[in-house]
UniProtKB/TrEMBL annotation:
Provenance organism: Asparagopsis taxiformis
EC assignment: 1.14.13.81
Keywords, ordered alphabetically: Chlorophyll biosynthesis, Iron, Metal-binding, NADP, Oxidoreductase, Photosynthesis, Plastid
Family, as annotated: Belongs to the AcsF family.
The Rubrerythrin diiron-binding domain, residue ranges: 80-213
Pfam family, one: Rubrerythrin
Pathway recorded for this protein: Porphyrin-containing compound metabolism; chlorophyll biosynthesis
Cofactor(s) required for function per UniProt: Fe cation
GO biological process: chlorophyll biosynthetic process; photosynthesis
Reaction it catalyzes: Mg-protoporphyrin IX 13-monomethyl ester + 3 NADPH + 3 O2 + 2 H(+) = 3,8-divinyl protochlorophyllide a + 3 NADP(+) + 5 H2O
Designated name of the protein: Probable magnesium-protoporphyrin IX monomethyl ester [oxidative] cyclase
Amino acid sequence: MQNTINNNKTPAKETLLTPRFYTTDFEEMAKLDISLNLYEFESVLQEFRADYNKQHFIRDEEFEQTWENLDKKTKALFIEFLERSCTAEFSGFLLYKELSRKLQYSNPVIAECFLLMSRDEARHAGFLNKAIGDFNLSLDLGFLTKSRKYTFFSPKFIFYATYLSEKIGYWRYITIYRHLEKHPQHRIYPIFKFFENWCQDENRHGDFFAALLKSQPQFLNNLQSRLWCRFFLLSVFATMYLNDLQRSDFYKSIGLDARQYDMQVIRKTNENASRIFPVALNVDHPLFFKYLDECATQNKNLIEIDNQEHNIITKYIKKIPLYLGLSKNLLQLYLMAPINSSKLSSTVR
């Protein structure tokens, strides 16, 4: 199979935790009535049109140097970080671009919002791919478009998941930026200087999806929606936590403790979500991060079995108790009583 990375670098194996490409029901999207929140959409659209970061993603002279002095392990982890980030941004570009094309006649305001968000995501992906080029590699985005499997999500699931991914992206970028601003000796590469303005794109995208959710009260104001909000909050938080603890050495290389970093990002994203979602997760419950830590350990053990065991049957047998344990911990997290958002929001505003 052709690699998505040139120069003989094999892309990361696709798993449940890798960035995914999405598609949706475009006919259902075209029928959305946004009149309940039209004023907010017009405001968000004006923000997108202003294009505050038009001149931001321009490489300066600091990029013009060799990165051969980076520790070999650190370099490999950093390249993986760039690859995963580029894939996630490019996934957003593809989805938003297709939505803008499908909705241009039925809902021109929403279509233009998606078009301008696809502009932002393309800019992010291109900037990241240029960074990968500094290590004599290149992500083949054209091949990636054709080779990746596309996951179908209904529009409301797209709204939940993408709202959270944009908001958690904001907190990830700004947390790293603020840390490196205080500790510049850990800034191993100049791309981190761009994170402050970059994360504002993520924030504006999140605001757009918040407006979409508020325009569809049926996605927020019943028992079913409360259950789905809990599910997506937990899915996004757990995916990030397992991914980052698996790559704790990368965060260590920039002076961060992966666990403490994720705990802060989860708390901030949970607070943000409480302003839109009817419920928030009880992330301060003494068992919340304990269960996530157990999930991270089980995930690490699954990876070790993949790397060390070559017999397919033996591998499967060894994985069964880990999958059962992982499922049990995730279920316990999901069943943990949530917090009514009105209560949480009143304490953070």
